[in-house]
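Follow-up to my post from last week.
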Amino acid sequence: MIKILIVDDEKPINDLIEMNLSEAGYNCTCVYDGISACDILEVERFDLVLLDIMLPGANGYEVLDYIKPLNIPVIFLTAKGSTEDKVKGLKLGADDYLTKPFEIVELLARVESILRRAGKTQTEIIVDDIIIDTRSRSVRRGNREIALTMKEFELLLLFARNKNIALFRETLYENVWGSDFMGDSRTVDLHVQRLRKKLHWEDKIKAIYKVGYRLEV
Amino acid sequence: MIKILIVDDEKPINDLIEMNLSEAGYNCTCVYDGISACDILEVERFDLVLLDIMLPGANGYEVLDYIKPLNIPVIFLTAKGSTEDKVKGLKLGADDYLTKPFEIVELLARVESILRRAGKTQTEIIVDDIIIDTRSRSVRRGNREIALTMKEFELLLLFARNKNIALFRETLYENVWGSDFMGDSRTVDLHVQRLRKKLHWEDKIKAIYKVGYRLEV
DNA sequence: CAGCTATGTATCTGTATTGTATCATAAAAT
DNA sequence: ATTTTATGATACAATACAGATACATAGCTG
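User reply:
Got it. Predicted complex:
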């Protein structure tokens, strides 16, 4: 299990991140200031730290100094997009930075990227007889690869992370397409159909009348 | 009892939400401006706040600031659907976002989602020997799934949340169909009959002469 | 630039869902 | 008991929805 430490004094942001990373299968711990961060790092192993720069107590840079010798990758969270801060952070040893406000998709991408770089990626999600590798973005049944497009892959991932849960068309659209306006387009349906066909999941991904779809396993 | 505070200056919207959440078993309180919201939050505990952005007095963002330290989840209600606003809201600490006009079904889904996230709700409702899973929108008896349509499911949910309570036809119609005008149509009756048949609940859902129906368990 | 792939729109069609109409039966009122 | 009214049952029609297919566009690759 990959463990991520989230250090941010704004609880909502903390929660938002935690929720999404937990959903993606990571084990998260939240602390709200620099001192607590150092304390917990003293006794617990983590694979990645998400670190806010503006912190009460010790600021982000100081915490970074503390983390450095532990050799744990760090992603800086910064409110401002000032190049100065970025450079400073990266110079001091942050592996990446993320400017608030950020899209969840981007957060996940960067987290995966960093973990991959550190060789710690959790890569496989298994659903039924299918293996989804988030790292190579590939899907296999046994050792036969199933070629999916970008959207199809994202869609599958969402279903895989929400097995047996009815997903509204709007939810699907928001997550895969990133926009909250769908209108009456039938894009989602079409992609579900294509995905079904490719995976031979004609009856596993069920349409729910007037609602959306559900992956049944 | 889960308590929800509704903050919206448009009374009809307020009422609509209140009615539906009350039916769903939540305890609701309505206020119509930001100041009142803060006042009541000062003295009463709530589990969730539904907050309109456009408010007289203090606007939604300011109220949000006020709520933040209280650590109560917030769902923003807004007419706008721009990602900018969404991010702004989420960044400031809103836990979710609902764009007006919204479907009642979606409202309930999001409320449940948030409460679940906060560990304050259960996803399964058990009635007699039947299990209703609001998350997957499925109904089972033992491990035999009972296929219900949208309306049937909503109807069952309403009965399940109001066991042994007589429900007026108008109430049923308003909640499941979302409209407050029913005329003298017999739509509700028909759906009750269909639901009865599917669940073999011919005698559990009792007709109450000149009133409506009641689920007896 | 041509050709390919990914993605999205438009359209048609079958069908599940939903609602209306009708008649039969049960409950209440007189 | 008889009338009146409400509900149950059934059949059927309208509708909305999802599946399928074809086609248009965009974006990439060579």
